[in-house]
Amino acid sequence: MATTSKSILIKNYINGSFQNPTSNQWIDNINPSNGEVYGQIPNSNKIDVEQAYLAAKSSFPKWSQTSLEQRSKILLAIADLLESNLDLFAKAESKDNGKPLELAKTIDIPRAASNFRFFANAITQFASESHESVGHSAINYTLRQAIGVVGCISPWNLPLYLFTWKIAPAIAAGNCVVAKPSEVTPITAYLLGKICNDAGLPKGVLNIVHGLGNTTGQAIIEHPNIKAISFTGGTKTGAHIAKIAAPMFKKLSLELGGKNPNIIFADCDYEAMLNSTIRSSFANQGQICLCGSRIFVEASIYNTFKNDFIARVKQLKVGHPSEKDTNIGALVSKPHLKNVMQYIDSAKKDHNATILCGGKQVVIKNYENGYYLEPTVIEVNTNQCKINQEEIFGPVVSIMPFNNEDEVLQMANDTPYGLSATLWTNNLQRTMRFTNELQAGIVWVNTWLMRDLRTPFGGVKHSGVGREGGFEALRFFTETKNVCIKY
Ligand code: TXE
Fold it and tell me: How is domain 261-452 classified at the architecture level of CATH?
């Protein structure tokens, strides 16, 4: 890692080597825990993206013909190197994103390794169908071939976790990649380049270009020969990308925002629900698209829940990400902190909302310029308010009671989003009804964020298009061809 006297200079990873942006334009990289600039990242332009594309294009013929066993071996080596460099990656991730170091160590980096390991194995099991046209002396078989050069663009909330969730299946399927991490959290993507070289990934299979969305990201989605785009980020950006990519007939996978209901019935396992609801409300400072930010509680236990939940929230420690007992670290950036505060300020002026706890910025000794915010619980009396209709993406949840199944089902679905939903009940009939009728791509019952990487991952409505995970991802990153042979 190149360092100048005071900061870390990261570079693009193109054709297996590290390069400055051709324009020599750089962006400050800020440490959210203290608000200090601690590095520079390239603001890459069309020329950089073209160089990355050409490297990918020239590597594609050989890589797409590399045996599945060989591809699998290299992806397993990347997974092993991520694990043997866990501390380096976790410290880098925590410093870049503001999340507690413990979280980066136990979730983010292990999951990045699992992403490579999972697709290293999945690709050796990925098969397709054949269809015998009986009586017509014909046999059909389906080919699922690598697409070519694909684009992967990822967000800042789970930087390496989501970056590798796209890259691993893309290269496992035989494609070559032009990838762009968020300009807000670029470090672990930069570190991944060296790991790929050490693991023997042929140069040009993966190319990582850094920069702003409207310059570097835009150049990727506009590139005429980057044939598929896998994107995770905001709904607004997803719509913008679709507008550009659709008329170019690119394959598109869009994983966007969420405003997920957490529905709690009185017959649930109360302690398990309470423990899980603290996590689903505030993990990663509430900056996970799957967080259950709208909490609906059956009226008969509402007051008990409200008292118990608030008491638990008040025990959460807002602290520097490096401290072991920190539950809530720094939010990812000053603009994002400001955006979340605007929602809290709007709640204060909304007669439908009451702030029950939190809502204030936190000043931490020696880190006075860090981006810290108290975990905040807002009681609302309608699902129609701004707090319940817009994605806040911070440590802010709303709570409100409901009287019956019809009422809560209607409110849960009354949102432009449809990513995930959580249901707490031990009633089987209710479970079958809700899992059928909830408008979401993922429904957890009596758990949250339990993940089996074979399962389809994605949302409906404004939460996106397409699914990631398992064979869904391998199908996205391949083109399907039907071959019919008459004999
Ligand atoms: O996403 P952006 P951000 C939601 C959440 C958050 C909002 C914005 O509501 O507040 O999205 O987050 C690149 N062409 N989620 O700012 O702006 C950009 O550089 C091509 C939910 O991170 O969408 C970054 O690499 N690329 C989400 C990536 O897109 C462009 C997780 C995401 O940036 C681009 C994160 C353009 N014109 C945020 N503009 C989830 N579902 O997990 C930006 N980018």
Answer: 3-Layer(aba) Sandwich (3.40)
